[in-house]
Amino acid sequence: MPEQTKKAIEFAKSNEEYNGTNHSLVDLVRKYFNDNNINYSSFSYKDLEPFLN
Q1: Where exactly are the structural domains of the chain?
Q2: Under 8 Å between Cβ of 4 and 33
Q3: Helix, strand, coil shares, percent, the chain, to 5
Q4: What's the whole-model pTM score?
Q5: How far apart are CA 30 and CA 42, in angstroms?
Q6: How many CB atoms lie within 10 A of CB 23?
Q7: pLDDT per residue over 13-45, tens digit each?
Q8: How many CA atoms lie within 13 A of 17 on its CB side?
């Protein structure tokens, strides 16, 4: 799922709803996963940090 996570983060950061907060990023990554029928377990911003570089 690393590639899907990277795509989800790209989506989130380019989304007009993204306001630069950790909470916003997590919400939009979840939205991407849901919209694309990607199964995922619970996660937080801390789980996304390795993909932000």
Answers
A1: 2-47
A2: yes
A3: 65, 0, 35
A4: 0.94
A5: 10
A6: 10
A7: 999 999 999 999 999 999 999 999 999 999 999
A8: 12
Distance between CA atoms of residues 49 and 53, nearest Å: 8
Residue 12, both tokens: 């989130």
Q: Residue 31 has what pLDDT? A: 98
- Spatial neighbors of 8 by CB under 8 A, at least 6 apart, are 28, 29, 32, 33, 38
What gap in Å lies between CA 39 and CA 44, rounded to an integer?
A: 15
CA–CA dist 16, 51 (Å, integer): 20
d(CA 6, CA 52): 8
Q: What is the pLDDT of residue 1?
A: 77
